[in-house]
Amino acid sequence: MSLLKSFIEVSADSHFPIQNLPFGVFKPSEQSVGRVGVAIGDFVCDLSAISDLALFEGPLLKNTKVFHEDSLNSFMGLGKPAWREARNTLQSLLSSENPTIRDNKTFRERIFHSIFTVIMLLPAKIGDYTDFYASKEHATNVGIMFRGKENALMPNWVHLPVGYHGRSSSVVVSGTNLKRPCGQSKNDADVLPFFTASKTLDFELEMGAFVGTGNDLGQPITVQNAKDHIFGLVLLNDWSARDLQKWEYVPLGPFLGKNFGTTISPWVVTLDALEPFICDAPTQDPKPLEYLQENGKNTYDINLTAALQTKNMTSPHVITTTNLKYMYWTLTQQLAHHTVNGCNMRPGDLLGTGTISGPTPDSFGSMLELSWKGEKTIPLVNGEERKFIQDGDTVVLSGQCKGNGFTVGFGTCSGTILPANK
């Protein structure tokens, strides 16, 4: 089978070939309004313009206005048949064999914008955000640090995907700067806590899954049909103030150490685009309860990196490389567990995977692990070193899947830490 190609020139290393077509929300200029687009090569394809030109001819999207909105929520709420109809239509319209847009200069001028000049917005209005703790390597590493090898994993960890409800209002799009958080901390030798700006600020290399279609209250989503409810994936940086978190998390879990900011990438890569990269998940032992049992391939081979750029560096330096396929609990298991009690999900809800760590020290997904609780330093390419994030540091996450002659990627997810409020 010949490789599908677009009439838009796409470089070999681009994350956005015609095989990808991730969805996002953008503004062509500061004065314009947000609308839905897809990325292809160095361009954003304006779906509101395609709709206005009556080029969506399928029964589910003909005459639709969902692409004129400043979020993906309405489109995601239409369900998987509509997502697939949009993707198939766009692959046809952007194909090198289709003259409809290719040979019409007026159409091209209305539809395409430079990806370097548009303003990217959050892809969805996020009603609820849940963060999981689903990497066995990460949970084991953290457990060893704070409880010792004998008690590394809590008894429930191998039986269910552990998670907590995060703060959706502080989820921000890539490129948004965040201030160093303040809160209470306490040293082991101290009797009383003290108020401070976080001194051990960290990133967590994660992915996020956007819920497309939800479920009614009281009606769980099964692990077998969970894929039909997941619209697509983004990169996610779950920034973490380790010192604040350490003091506050007992007995109810993270609070100020997490809710000051979570950064996501602007482009949502659909599960259809990721289907060529589906692979086996890790073997689960003991066998999970029946409602979490899956058959076949249920995760994706997505190469992930985290890079750090200090104020003295001209480009980011990769400090870890990992892969989504290492995750013990899959995305579908996470969604099934989230709803097994009848919890209702809605279009635009966001599920974080939890830190994705691999089996080797160079694949750990946080600075807490890379520096092993600050006991060693992380060398950088310019001779600097870090244990945790300093003011002015920028963290850049990236992810991609390598296909036969093409790459399906997520772009980048970046953020810079500014000094705390005085």
Automatic annotation (TrEMBL):
Amino-acid positions noted as binding Mg(2+) in the UniProt annotation, renumbered to this chain = 238, 258, 262
* Reaction it catalyzes: 4-fumarylacetoacetate + H2O = acetoacetate + fumarate + H(+)
Ranges where the Fumarylacetoacetase-like C-terminal domain occurs: 129-414
**What cofactor does its activity depend on?**
Mg(2+); Ca(2+)
Residues of the Fumarylacetoacetase N-terminal domain: 19-123
Record: residues binding Ca(2+): 131, 204, 206, 238
InterPro entries reported for this sequence = Fumarylacetoacetase, Fumarylacetoacetase-like_C, Fumarylacetoacetase_C_sf, Fumarylacetoacetase_N, Fumarylacetoacetase_N_sf
GO BP annotations listed: homogentisate catabolic process; L-phenylalanine catabolic process; L-tyrosine catabolic process
Binding of substrate occurs at 133, 147, 245, 249, 355
Q: Which UniProt keywords apply?
A: Calcium, Hydrolase, Magnesium, Metal-binding, Phenylalanine catabolism, Tyrosine catabolism
Q: What is this protein called?
A: Fumarylacetoacetase
Query: What does the record give as the organism's lineage?
Result: Eukaryota, Amoebozoa, Evosea, Eumycetozoa, Dictyostelia
